[in-house]
Write a structure and sequence with these properties.
Blueprint: H1 7-20, H2 24-28, H3 32-39, H4 46-61, H5 70-73, H6 81-92, H7 101-111, H8 120-126, H9 128-131, H10 137-150, H11 169-172, E1 186-197, E2 201-204, E3 220-223, E4 234-243, E5 246-256, E6 265-268, H12 278-288
Helix pairs in contact: 6-10, 7-10
The protein binds iron/sulfur cluster.
Iron/sulfur cluster (SF4) is lined by residues 106, 109-110, 151-152, 157-159, 162, 164-165, 168, 170-171.
C-alpha cells in the first residue's frame, strides 16, 4: 500500500484491510472484486491484484510462508529487487539492504558521489561486516529507509542533528554533489468519450489497453490525435491529471445516447456497488454537472 502513497493516506485503508483479512489464508480466498472494493480510492490498483495473486501463490505453493531466497521472492507477482530485499530483512531478519531512492541518496551523500557512479551491490558486499554487525537486521532495513525519509532528506538534509556527519563526505565537502531527481515525467494526451443517458448513467468498459488502468471500468479512451474529426461528441472539459510518472492532458467528451457498443455496460453515476477506480470517479464528477 505504501508504494507511491503517503503513510497518512494508507492508515485507514490498512486498518480496514487487516480487520477484514486476519490471515494470509483468508486473503487468498477473497475475490478480486472484494479486494478492489476495499482498495477503492487508494489508486495503483495493480498492487491489489498482485497482492491477491501473491497470497494465493504463497498458500498453494509455499505452505503460507514467505520463501527465504531473494530469487524465489522475486518470482511473486509485483515483487522486484527492492521489495524482495525489504521482505527478506523485515520478515526473516536476514542481513540485507532494500535499495530504494532514499537509500541511494544516503549512500551517495556519505560518499559524496552521484548514484550513477556507485555500484550499490558491490558497495554493500564490501561493507557487509560494518553494515550488518547487529542481529537486528529487520530494524536496520527499516531504519535505513526512515533515515533517508526523515533525516537525510532529498531537500534540506538535517545534517546538524545527524549522527553520521562525522563520516559523511557530503557534509564535510565544499563541493557537494547535487541530489538529482531521476524521475522522468512522461506527458500524454488523451481523449475520453462518455456515452451518457437521461437516467444519469455512463457507459463503461473493461476492454481497454491503458497500461496504468488496464482492464478496469473506464469510458472509451484514446490517445489524442488532433486531425481526427470528433463527430457529434461534445467537449465537456479539458483537465490535467498525474498518475505515477505520467502527466495526462485530458479532453473529456460526451454524447447522450441509448445505444452503446457491445463491450460497454451502463453504470450509475451516483450509486455503485462495483469497484470504480478514482480515475473514473473523477470523470463521474465532471459528467454529473450535466444533470
Ligand atoms: S550529514 Fe547530512 S548529508 Fe550526511 S548523512 Fe547526515 S543528513 Fe545526510
Amino acid at each position: 500500500m505504501l508504494q507511491q502513497t503517503q503513510v497518512k493516506t494508507v492508515i485507514p485503508y490498512f486498518g480496514k484491510f487487516t480487520k477484514k483479512f486476519k490471515t494470509l489464508n483468508s486473503l487468498s480466498k477473497c475475490s478480486e472484486k472484494e479486494i478492489l472494493k476495499l482498495w477503492e480510492g487508494l489508486g495503483y490498483y495493480r498492487r491489489a491484484r498482485n497482492l491477491l495473486s501473491t497470497s494465493k501463490l504463497l498458500v498453494d505453493k509455499y505452505n503460507s510462508k514467505l520463501p527465504k531466497v531473494v530469487k524465489e521472492i522475486k518470482t511473486l507477482p509485483g515483487v522486484g529487487s527492492y521489495t524482495a530485499n525489504a521482505l527478506l530483512g523485515l520478515v526473516h531478519n536476514r542481513p540485507t539492504v532494500a535499495v530504494d531512492g532514499n537509500v541511494k541518496r544516503v549512500f551517495g551523500r556519505i560518499l559524496n558521489k552521484t548514484d550513477s557512479k556507485i555500484n550499490f551491490d558491490q558497495l554493500i558486499e564490501i561493507n557487509k561486516d560494518r553494515l550488518f554487525h547487529t542481529k537486528r537486521n529487520s530494524d536496520f532495513v527499516e531504519a535505513l529507509m526512515e533515515f533517508g525519509a526523515l533525516v537525510c532528506r532529498a531537500k534540506d538534509p538535517k545534517c546538524a542533528v545527524c549522527n553520521l556527519k562525522r563520516y559523511c563526505k557530503y557534509f564535510r565537502s565544499s563541493k557537494k554533489i547535487k541530489t538529482v531527481n531521476n524521475k522522468t515525467v512522461e506527458n500524454k494526451n488523451y481523449d475520453i468519450f462518455c456515452y451518457i443517458n437521461k437516467k444519469k448513467q455512463i457507459a463503461l468498459t473493461k476492454k481497454n489497453n491503458l497500461g496504468f488502468l488496464k482492464n478496469f471500468n473506464l469510458p472509451e479512451i484514446k490517445e489524442t490525435k488532433n486531425n481526427i474529426n470528433k463527430g457529434n461528441w461534445k467537449l465537456l472539459k479539458k483537465y490535467k491529471k498525474s498518475i505515477s510518472n505520467k502527466k495526462l492532458n485530458i479532453n473529456l467528451y460526451y454524447k447522450f445516447s441509448n445505444k452503446i457498443p457491445p463491450s460497454f455496460t451502463w453504470c450509475s453515476i451516483d450509486k455503485n456497488k462495483e469497484f470504480i477506480p478514482t480515475f473514473t470517479k473523477k470523470i463521474f464528477i465532471q459528467v454529473s454537472t450535466l444533470f
